[in-house]
């Protein structure tokens, strides 16, 4: 499906920033180990330095090395039940997660979007993980369509990748943290959390 795989891979490897569709809203991302690229995202969005990025991938296991092990029972249950999907889980990070991605916090948000185009992008991305946020300027509405993402990120992102008809649903993910096996909801989004 993705027509410009080599170009996308080249952009990421060279510290570039890409805009892409997910199952919720449009995202803006780069390789998590590249500090210059992460910095570029903050500059593009005029994002406050104390607001962390999250990590997204096409498979949960690519993200697990970025969070402290072993996972709590609650975290494991939520990952099994809601990944892939519109849940961002905030967990204690591992030493692999750079401080410049998490604004120096000791936690990191992880998510596996349920979108075919995003899955293919992660397949070709070195390491299969992107440091990401929404494709809009801070305090502006999130982009819900290719046209909006293009308008928001024109001359800012290195590429805005077509959605190939796999549209974003337009509602942000639910953000939940797990601390001492207790769930704390930071943002109520597309899914209502239920623990069996």
Distance between the termini: 37 Å
Q: How many beta-strand segments? A: 9
Q: What do we call the CATH topology?
A: DHBP synthase
Q: Helicity level, as a percent range?
A: 25-40%
Strand percentage, roughly?
A: 15-25%
Spell the H/E element sequence: HEEHEHHEEHEHEEE
Mean pLDDT: 95
Report the CATH C-level class: Alpha Beta
Main beta sheet: 9 strands, mixed
Total DSSP helices: 6
What structural class do helix, strand and pairing data support? alpha/beta
User: Which radius of gyration do the C-alpha atoms yield?
Assistant: 15 Å
Number of domains: 1
CATH architect. name: Alpha-Beta Complex
CATH superfamily: DHBP synthase
Low-confidence stretches: none
Lateral strand order in the biggest sheet: 7-1-2-6-3-5-4-8-9
* Principal-axis shape: globular
Polypeptide structure, described:
The chain contains 6 helices and 9 strands. With 196 residues, it is of the alpha/beta class. It has a single domain (5-187), classed as DHBP synthase (Alpha-Beta Complex).
What descriptive keywords fit this protein?
196 residues; alpha/beta; DHBP synthase; 9-stranded mixed sheet; 6 helices
How do the strands and helices of this protein lay out in sequence?
Blueprint: H1 5-13, E1 18-20, E2 27-30, H2 35-45, E3 54-57, H3 60-64, H4 73-82, E4 87-92, E5 107-111, H5 116-124, E6 129-134, H6 146-153, E7 159-160, E8 174-179, E9 182-187
Parallel strand pairs: 1-7, 3-5, 4-8
Antiparallel strand pairs: 1-2, 2-6, 3-6, 4-5, 8-9
